[in-house]
Design goal:
The complex is a heterodimer. Chain A is mostly helical. In chain A, 69% of the residues lie in helices and 1% in strands. Chain A has 13 helices and 2 strands, in the order ααααααββααααααα. In chain A, α3 (86-121) packs antiparallel against α10 (244-259), α4 runs antiparallel to α7 (188-215) and α12 runs antiparallel to α13. The radius of gyration of chain A is 26 Å and the shape is globular. By secondary structure, chain B is an all-alpha fold. The longest helix of chain B has 33 residues, at 26-58. The chains are: A mainly alpha, B mainly alpha. Chains A and B meet through α1, α3, α4, α5 and α6 of A and α2, α3, α6, α7 and α8 of B.
C-alpha cells in the first residue's frame, strides 16, 4: 500500500530502501488493524440499521444478517418518525430530551465560563494558576463519581440543597424524582442533571478561554482603553469578537459532548422520572444491550450521528470568521 | 487614561484589566478588586462544595446521616464506612483496582507507542495513500463512539473476547487524537537531526526509538496522563464489554454498588471517595500537563 515517494536530495539506495521498509512495516499493520476494527465497525453499523437484528437469533451467513434477522429497509426510520409503538415514542422523547439538554447546556456553559475566564485572566499569575487548577478538578473526576456526588447533594432527606431550603423555611424538593415539577417548561430533574453536567464540564471551556484571552495582543485592548472605553465595552467590543475562533471550537466541542451524554444521567436518574431525562445514548444503550434490538439501536445511533453532523455544520456556518488578528 | 503611556515608557509592565482601572478613584478600584475576588471565591466554593460534602458525608455515622436537617460537619467522625467498603465480601477490592489499573496502563502503553509511531510517520514521511489514511483517522475521530459501539460489541463476541479485560485493551490500540497530537510534536523535531542519524548508519527503527521518542518526552507525558484518566473514568464501554462482577472496572462497580446501597449514602460516598481520590492524586502531580494537553488536543 504505502510506497515511499522520493525525498528531496540525493540519498544512497540503502537508506532509501530502509525508509521504504519502515513505512510499509508501520502502515500495513495499521491498515489491517484499523480496517478490521474501525472500518468494519462503521460499515457494520451502517448495515445493521436496515435489519431487524438481534444477536440471539440465527441469521444469514454474512455477519448474521438475513434469515431470522430480516432486512426491513427504512422501516426503523419510518417508525421513529411516525410510529405509535412504545419504542418509537420513547425514541422521540429521548431525541427531544437530548436537544433540550444540549441547547440548555450550551448557553449556560458559555454564560458561565467566558466571564469567569475573563475574571481569572485579570488576576496575577500565581493566584491565577491556583484558581485555574481548582476550577479544573471536576473535569478530571470520574463522571460516575460526579453523578453520585450530585445525587447525594440532591437527596430529598440527606442532601445539602434541601438542608439549605429547610433552613430558610421551605419544604424539601424531590429534585430527581418528582415528575410534576417544571421550571421554564423543562422538568426540574432535567435541570438537575444539566447543573451536574455543567459543574463537571465548565472548567474545561474556562481553561480554553483563559488560554485564548492570553493570546489576544494587549495593545488592542489598551488602544480601546485609551479611546475611552470602559472594561465592559472592551470586553464586549474587542475581546469577544477576537475570540470568535475559540468560541466556535468551544461551541462545537460542548455540543458534541452534550449530545453524547450518558454516564451522569444513567447513574443519577436512569432516564426517570417518567422518561423526562431519558436521552438518546441511554435509549440506544437500553435497546441494544437490554432488549437486544440492535438494528433499531443502530438506526437510533445513526440519527445521533446525523444530529451531531448537522449541528456542527450549522455552528461552523454561523461562527465562521477570518481566523486571524 | 493618559497616564498609561508614560508609565509604559518608564518600563511599567501593563497589568491586566482590573489593575488597569487603577487610574480611577481609589474607592472604586478597591470595590472592583473586592468584587473580582468575591466572585472568584464564590465560584471556587461552588466547585469544591460537592467534593467537601462527599468527604464529610463519608465520615458520618448512619444515625447522624438519618438526622433531619442534616449536620454539616460530622459530629463524631468515623472511618467505619471505609472499613465497611473494604471488608465487603462482594467487593474483591484488590482485584477491582487491579482491573482498572491493568486496562488503563495497557492502553497508555499501546497508545503511546502507536501514537508516537504514526505521528512520526505522518509528520516525516511522504508515501502514496498518506492523505487517505490520514483522512480516515480524521473520520474515526468525528464519529461518536456510540455509533460503533454495537458492531464493536459484536466483533468482540465473534473473537470470544467479550467479558475479558483484553477486550477492553485490544479495541483501543489506536487513538486518533493521540496521533494528531504526536504529529504536531514530531513536526518540531528538525529534519537535520534525523538525517544526521541516517548518515551515521542508524536504521529507521533506531531513529524512531533513539532520536524521535526522546524528543517527545513532555508530549508523551501529557498523552499518557490523559489516556490514563480517560480509561480510569470510562464507564459505558467497560459496562457493555464486561459482565462478570469481579472483572469489572471501578466506575462500573461503583455504579452497581450504589444501586445496592441506595439507602446508605454514607457508605456510597466512602466508595466514591475511593474511586475519585486516586485520579485527583494523579491530577495533583501532572496538573500542568493535563490542563495544557486537554485544551490543546480537544481530548477529554
Amino acid at each position: 500500500m504505502g510506497v515511499l515517494a522520493r525525498r528531496t536530495g540525493k540519498r544512497r539506495s540503502g537508506v532509501f530502501a530502509g525508509q521504504r521498509r519502515f513505512v510499509l512495516g508501520v502502515t500495513i499493520p495499521t491498515i489491517i488493524y484499523s480496517g478490521g476494527l474501525s472500518l468494519l465497525s462503521i460499515a457494520w453499523a451502517f448495515a445493521l440499521m436496515f435489519f431487524e437484528y438481534s444477536p440471539g437469533h440465527t441469521g444469514g451467513p454474512l455477519l448474521g444478517l438475513g434469515g431470522n434477522n430480516p432486512f426491513v429497509g427504512l422501516a426503523h426510520f419510518r417508525n421513529m418518525i411516525e410510529g405509535t409503538t412504545l419504542e418509537s415514542r420513547l425514541f422521540r422523547t429521548s431525541l427531544n430530551n437530548t436537544l433540550i439538554f444540549a441547547f440548555g447546556v450550551l448557553p449556560l456553559n458559555l454564560g458561565l465560563t467566558l466571564p469567569l475566564a475573563a475574571l481569572i485572566e485579570s488576576v496575577p499569575g500565581r493566584i491565577k494558576n491556583a484558581f485555574r487548577a481548582i476550577y479544573f478538578l471536576p473535569v478530571v473526576t470520574s463522571s460516575v463519581g460526579v453523578a453520585l456526588m450530585w445525587g447525594h447533594l440532591y437527596h430529598p432527606q440527606e442532601g445539602l440543597l434541601n438542608a439549605v431550603i429547610r433552613r430558610f423555611g421551605g419544604s424539601p424538593i424531590f429534585w430527581l424524582s418528582d415528575p410534576r415539577l417544571k421550571f421554564l417548561g423543562v422538568s426540574v430533574a432535567m435541570w438537575a442533571v444539566i447543573m451536574a453536567y455543567l459543574w463537571q464540564d465548565y472548567g474545561y471551556n474556562m481553561v480554553i478561554f483563559v488560554a485564548a484571552l492570553q493570546g489576544i495582543p494587549k495593545e488592542l485592548r489598551e488602544a480601546a482603553m485609551i479611546d475611552g472605553a470602559n472594561a465592559w465595552q472592551v470586553f464586549r467590543r474587542v475581546t469577544v469578537p477576537l475570540l470568535r475562533p475559540t468560541l466556535l471550537f468551544v461551541c462545537v466541542m460542548t455540543m458534541l459532548s452534550s449530545f453524547q451524554v450518558f454516564d451522569i444521567i444513567q447513574v443519577m436518574t436512569n432516564g426517570e422520572p417518567r422518561n423526562q431525562t431519558r436521552v438518546l445514548v441511554l435509549d440506544i444503550y437500553v435497546n441494544a444491550f437490554r432488549y437486544q434490538r440492535m438494528g433499531w439501536a443502530a438506526a437510533a445511533s445513526f440519527v445521533l450521528l446525523l444530529v451531531v453532523v448537522v449541528v456542527t455544520v450549522v455552528q461552523m456556518r454561523l461562527l465562521r470568521t477570518e481566523w486571524e488578528y | 487614561m493618559a497616564t498609561t503611556i508614560p508609565q509604559r515608557a518608564a518600563g511599567f509592565k501593563p497589568e491586566p484589566d482590573v489593575r488597569r482601572s487603577t487610574e480611577r478613584p481609589g474607592a472604586r478600584r478597591d470595590l472592583g478588586v473586592f468584587l473580582l475576588y468575591f466572585l472568584l471565591s464564590l465560584g471556587l466554593s461552588m466547585t469544591l462544595m460537592p467534593f467537601l460534602w462527599m468527604i464529610l458525608s463519608s465520615l458520618k455515622t448512619a444515625t447522624e446521616m438519618a438526622r433531619i436537617p442534616p449536620t454539616f460537619f460530622p459530629e463524631e467522625p468515623t472511618l467505619a464506612n471505609y472499613t465497611r467498603v473494604i471488608q465487603d465480601p462482594r467487593l474483591p477490592l484488590l482485584r477491582l483496582y487491579g482491573n482498572s489499573i491493568f486496562v488503563a496502563v495497557s492502553n497508555v502503553l499501546t497508545n503511546l507507542f502507536t501514537s508516537s509511531l504514526l505521528g512520526y510517520l505522518f509528520a516525516k514521511f511522504e508515501f502514496r495513500g498518506k492523505r487517505a489514511l490520514f483522512s480516515f483517522f480524521l473520520l474515526t475521530m468525528m464519529i461518536p463512539g456510540q455509533v460503533t459501539m454495537i458492531p464493536g460489541y459484536l466483533i468482540l463476541v465473534k473473537l470470544h473476547l467479550l467479558d475479558t479485560l483484553w477486550g477492553l485493551v485490544l479495541t483501543s490500540f489506536v487513538n486518533a487524537f493521540g496521533i494528531f497530537m504526536m504529529r504536531q510534536f514530531v513536526e518540531t523535531v528538525p529534519n537535520e537531526l534525523l538525517d544526521a542519524a541516517r548518515i551515521d548508519g542508524a536504521s529507521e527503527w533506531q531513529i524512531y526509538t533513539r532520536v524521535v521518542v526522546p524528543q517527545l518526552g513532555p508530549a508523551l507525558a501529557t498523552l499518557g496522563t490523559l489516556t490514563f484518566m480517560g480509561n480510569w473514568n470510562s464507564y459505558l464501554w467497560p459496562m457493555v464489554v464486561i459482565t462478570t462482577l469481579e472483572k469489572r472496572t471501578l466506575p462500573v462497580i461503583l455504579s452497581w454498588y450504589s444501586d445496592q446501597h441506595g439507602r446508605r449514602p454514607h457508605v456510597e460516598m466512602a466508595a466514591t471517595v475511593m474511586l475519585v481520590i486516586p485520579i485527583l492524586i494523579v491530577y495533583f502531580f501532572f496538573q500542568r500537563w493535563i490542563v495544557q494537553g486537554m485544551t490543546m488536543t480537544g481530548l477529554k
